[in-house]
Amino acid sequence: MRTWMKKKREELGMTQQNVADSLGVSKQYYQLIETNKRQCDLCSSLIMNLANCFGMSAIEIVDLENQT
Asked: Which helix (H) or strand (E) holds 17?
């Protein structure tokens, strides 16, 4: 599970649907990403979109991904 993703989402008071809408994906697809059941390695466009959604840099996202 990508606990950093869930933690950040909850810190921002966002639902999975909020993040999914921001990323332009379905809630179900985002759930699969957050629970690490889909897309083992995040593609660069998804990293950039997550960074924008969470108010982080792409480097921070990559660093968090490398820690998991």
From this structure: helix 16-23
